[in-house]
Amino acid sequence: MTNVELKDDEKRLLQGEMGEIQRLAMTWITEMASIAGAEELIDLDGTGDFHSPQTTMTLRYGFTLEQLEELVSTGAKFKIPTFANKSPFNEMSPVHGWEGCDMLCRYTGKDRFDDPKFHDYAMHEDFYRLFRKMGMMTSHSCANYLTVGFLPTIGQHCAWNESSAVPYCNAVLGARTNIDGSFATCFLGKAPYYDMHITENRYATVLVKSERLIQSDTEWDVFGFAVGEDAGVAVPCLTGTARPNTTQFSKLNAAMNTGGAVRMYHIPGSTPEAPSIEAAFNGIAPKRVITIGERELKATYEKLNYRAADKVDMVYLGCPHLNIVELMQIAGKLEGKRVKIPVWIMTTPWLYDVAKNLGYLKIFTDAGAKLMDGTCPAAMGGLPDYVKSFACDSAKQAYYITGCYADDPISVCYGNRDDCIDAALTGVWRGEWR
Ligand code: F3S
Question: Which fold has domain 8-87+124-199?
Fold first, then answer.
């Protein structure tokens, strides 16, 4: 089955000497390692996150609630600090703000996200109650790194499970992860040792030269998507940019891992493993040079902004989930105003409470906008039925909300946050690439 070299404790886990769920978890990890071509497993010393019980492991290696109850009764704990990703797969209900969202669950085809019974069911509290006993912190976000206050440090091995977050772990924090956050990896504290866990794979191979100084949030978003499309699975070294802030890193990560599969990159002088271009490449010449100029940026913006009309039915802000500074900035723009069309403002459940304490929730509510958390339209599988034209400021959301999920094509107005807020106040799109 596998050519993975297992240590003694791993063999015992695989043979079921430590319990049935442990055996299932180790079987899953070794099969994953075998598929990935890993020759051994790494003991994790960082943090982990994973989605719902259903994506904990595959159905083939899943376990029942009763088995989990039994495991918890033995005092079993996650081996590493473990956080919950978005609320459960298949029914990605918002944790807060779901009331009145007027949205059908497209996965079941009959339930509504604003039905209290469906919301309670969709939160899978039966599983999460037990996961909490095992030490999980149920933060329910794709952007846990914005919230949890406990981040892995440079060189630590992690098991994260979110495409937009994985580059944050690797490139921004200098910790190491593949997309391998799961019940199995977090519970056993082990993961296949391949790709981003290995130093040699983390050096840049592609040099990206930007001809325009990348500095605004939207420039980072568009630039990230363009780089991702060209770089694919390579590790790029980005030059010709300003120094990104936290919002911009989030946007860049989400966009690069949507346009392509960039899970690690370097910005010399900004990311920790690249004090210089030479260090980013480990002294080896780039295999390829990508130049991104005005033409490429504008073409990418226009590709993402495939609107059919200027009328907007709904505005969405919050992909990845908004950080507290973004919430403060949006509150400043909406204070004392009234939106004309539905507006969803999405953050993490923990920041929802902070926003409430700081008075932003009241500002949003008074303006007629909706503060929500823990999910997004793409994760919910679409939009309310009345939405035929949608405005957002995220390349990732613009990409996922169209062909991937919606039954009918949606007209997407993509642009910067001010353009989206203008659309919220007027119902009309006036954004453009600037
Ligand atoms: Fe998060 Fe949804 Fe974007 S899960 S990264 S807000 S597509």
Answer: Aconitase; domain 3 (3.30.499)
Q: How far is the CA of 185 from the centre of ligand 1 (A)?
A: 22
Cα 352 from Cα 139, distance rounded (Å): 11
Q: What is the pLDDT along the chain (434 residues), one digit of tens a residue?
A: 558 999 999 999 999 999 999 999 999 999 999 999 999 999 999 999 998 665 555 455 678 888 889 999 999 999 999 999 987 666 688 899 999 999 998 888 899 999 999 988 888 888 889 999 999 999 999 999 999 999 999 999 999 999 999 999 999 999 999 999 999 999 999 999 999 999 999 999 999 999 999 999 999 999 999 999 999 999 999 999 999 999 999 999 999 999 999 999 999 999 999 999 999 999 999 999 999 999 999 999 999 998 888 999 999 999 999 999 999 999 999 999 999 999 999 999 999 999 999 999 999 999 999 999 999 998 888 889 899 999 999 999 999 987 655 566 789 999 999 999 999 999 999 999 98
Compute the distance between CA of residue 93 and CA of residue 380 in angstroms, rounded to an integer: 7
Q: Where are the domains of the chain?
A: 8-87+124-199, 203-302, 305-426
User: Model-level pTM?
Assistant: 0.95
**Side-chain-side CA neighbours of residue 414 (13 Å):** 28
157 lines ligand 1 (CB under 6 A): no
Closest residue by CA, ligand 1 atom 2: 376
Whether ligand 1 lies within 6 angstroms of the CB of 417 is answered as no
- Cβ-in-10-Å burial (0-12, 13-18, 19+) of 216 comes to middle
Domains 8-87+124-199 and 305-426 share a fold: yes
93 touches 117 (CB < 8 A): no
Contact between 349 and 95 under an 8 Å Cβ cutoff? The reply is: yes
Please determine, looking at this structure, whether the domain spanning 305-426 carries the CATH number 1.10.8.60.
no
Nearest CA to ligand 1 atom 5: 320
